[in-house]
Amino acid sequence: MGVLSISIVVQPNTGMCEGFTDSNGDRRRRSIVLAPIKVRVEGGSFTLTWTCNLAESCHNKECFYAKSKGSPSIGEL
Fold first, then answer.
1. pTM for this one?
2. What is the C-alpha separation between 55 and 20, in angstroms, rounded?
3. Cα–Cα distances in angstroms (integers) from residue 35 to residues 2, 15, 25, 49, 53, in the given order
4. Any residues with CB less than 8 A from the CB of 12 and at least 6 apart, and which?
5. CA distance linking residue 47 with residue 30, whole number of Å
6. Got the DSSP string for the chain?
7. How far, in Å, CA of 57 to CA of 74, rounded?
8. N or C, where is the chain less crowded by C-beta within 10 Å?
9. How far is residue 66's CA from residue 72's CA, in Å, rounded to a whole number?
10. How far is CA 69 from CA 15, 24, 44, 47, 50, in A?
11. pLDDT tens track for 30-62
């Protein structure tokens, strides 16, 4: 039985985010980059994990990528 080998090209995607929310709660339109950060292979399938370049500074509670969504702003500390 032979080994199947395939090649998949994964590249970052650029775009516009309409819901970027800064630490003051103001929503702004910002250009973003969504980039792959991890590939997990299990059995015959694989999963890609992505992140946004603004994830650390976005406070949008509805955004899948925002890491600051549950954190209080500096003014609330």
1. 0.72
2. 9
3. 33, 11, 25, 8, 8
4. 33, 34, 35, 36
5. 27
6. -PPP--------EEEEEEEEE-TTS-EEEEEEEEEEEEEEEETTEEEEEEEETTTTT---TT-SS-SSTTSPPGGG-
7. 12
8. N
9. 13
10. 21, 12, 35, 24, 17
11. 999 999 999 898 888 889 999 999 999 999 999
Contact in structure between 47 and 39 (CB atoms under 8 Å) = yes
When pLDDT is cut at 50, 70 and 90, the band that residue 69 belongs to is low
Residue 18 has pLDDT above 90, yes or no: yes
Residue carrying the six token digits 């999963």: 47
